[in-house]
Amino acid sequence: MAKCDEGYLCEVCGNDVAKITDSDLYLRYVIGLIDPEVLHTQQERHLRCNPTLAQFIVHPDFEPVVVEGDFDKRLLDEAFALERERLVTRGWERLREVIKLDLPIIKYPLPEVLERIEHRAGFPERDR
After folding, report:
1. What's the N-to-C CA distance of the chain in angstroms?
2. What is the dihedral of CA 114, 120, 124, 125, to 10 degrees?
3. Which terminus of the chain has a smaller tally of CB atoms within 10 A, N or C?
């Protein structure tokens, strides 16, 4: 089977990542942890297969993830953990939005991430 016919398989559990709202890869892209130029080269994971990131999603529609040990957000600086919760939760909410919109993938990221991408690429500022 051709690689493109396999879908997006989780590098941790091996199962298909069928929904973008379960995608660690697209969440990292939306919040600016992955540049669009390398998105296609990155491995996919289910959000729950990357608990160190998933623990920062704080939303009534997302079952909380608790990490024990060194990467537990409760052990991190409180201000940092709160900022990360805000960013990652907004990113997850954005994934829920983009599945309802007809957008090109380059427009998926959060507004501030899009602005950084456009600035690096030398695009003129978007109309506000």
Report:
1. 46
2. 40
3. C
- Tell me, rounded to whole angstroms, the distance of Cα 73 from its chain centroid: 17
Which tens digit of pLDDT belongs to each residue from 79-106?
999 999 999 999 999 999 999 998 999 9
Question: Do the beta carbons of residue 44 and residue 128 sit within 8 Å?
Answer: no
The answer to the question of residue 127 being in a domain is no
Number of domains in the chain: 1
Give the structural domain span for 115: 3-121
Say what the pTM is: 0.87
From CA 111, how far away is CA 113, in angstroms rounded? Answer: 5
Q: Find the Cα–Cα–Cα–Cα dihedral 86, 72, 27, 126, rounded to 10°.
A: 40
